Amino acid sequence: MNIAIFVSGGGTNCENLINYFADNESVHTALVVSNKHDAYALARAERLGVPTAVAPKADLHNPDVMLPLLQKYDISFIVLAGWLPLIPDFLIDAYPHRIINLHPALLPKYGGKGMWGHHVHEAVKAAGETETGMTVHWVTPVCDAGEIIAQYKVALSPNDTVDDIAEKEHQLEMQYFPKVVEDILKSL
């Protein structure tokens, strides 16, 4: 099965997934797509021998660009790993129950428009939460509203800074996200 990883930033989860599936005979990371030409994730993917593509907003929302791109690499599953733009409906329709997202909070809390990266961790800190975590969910037309597939939690202390919260949550991603993706792909 060929997967595409969509990413907007640094790409630590992207690199982790590429490495995790590197020797897997059933799953191949065939493409990394970013909406930003300068996303460091593209350099990580290229260093690991994975083809890359840039899909700025106009391309992302153009079925005549995105569908042929994904077909060129025979993509059958899409993983959003730090991807910020909403996925257009035509892609959701073309990949029904075949697109998942990683969110840096325990949904349904701290989800929706504008809730990404440090914005999420700042909100968790401001609310005085005693735990945070990561959520993997199916992508739907509504931001962060898809059915939850998996969640992992970590305890927080009142002394944790926003950066501490981010690091604790990121460690969960590094540990659990590739296995969650693998389990989903095995179930298809």
TrEMBL record:
Function: Catalyzes the transfer of a formyl group from 10-formyltetrahydrofolate to 5-phospho-ribosyl-glycinamide (GAR), producing 5-phospho-ribosyl-N-formylglycinamide (FGAR) and tetrahydrofolate.
UniProt KW keywords: Purine biosynthesis, Transferase
Gene responsible for this protein: purN
Binding site for N(1)-(5-phospho-beta-D-ribosyl)glycinamide: 11-13
Ranges for domain Formyl transferase N-terminal: 1-181
Name listed for the protein in its UniProt record: Phosphoribosylglycinamide formyltransferase
Annotated site location: Raises pKa of active site His: 144
Catalytic activity: N(1)-(5-phospho-beta-D-ribosyl)glycinamide + (6R)-10-formyltetrahydrofolate = N(2)-formyl-N(1)-(5-phospho-beta-D-ribosyl)glycinamide + (6S)-5,6,7,8-tetrahydrofolate + H(+)
Family: Belongs to the GART family.
One of the record's GO cellular component terms: cytosol
Molecular function as annotated in GO: phosphoribosylglycinamide formyltransferase activity
Catalytic class of the enzyme: transferase
Domain of life of the native organism: Bacteria
Binding positions for (6R)-10-formyltetrahydrofolate per the UniProt entry: 101
EC number: 2.1.2.2
Active-site residues, record numbering mapped to chain: 103
Coiled coil residues, start to end: none
InterPro entries assigned to the protein according to its UniProt record, in alphabetical order: Formyl_transf_N, Formyl_transf_N_sf, GART
Pathways involved: Purine metabolism; IMP biosynthesis via de novo pathway; N(2)-formyl-N(1)-(5-phospho-D-ribosyl)glycinamide from N(1)-(5-phospho-D-ribosyl)glycinamide (10-formyl THF route): step 1/1
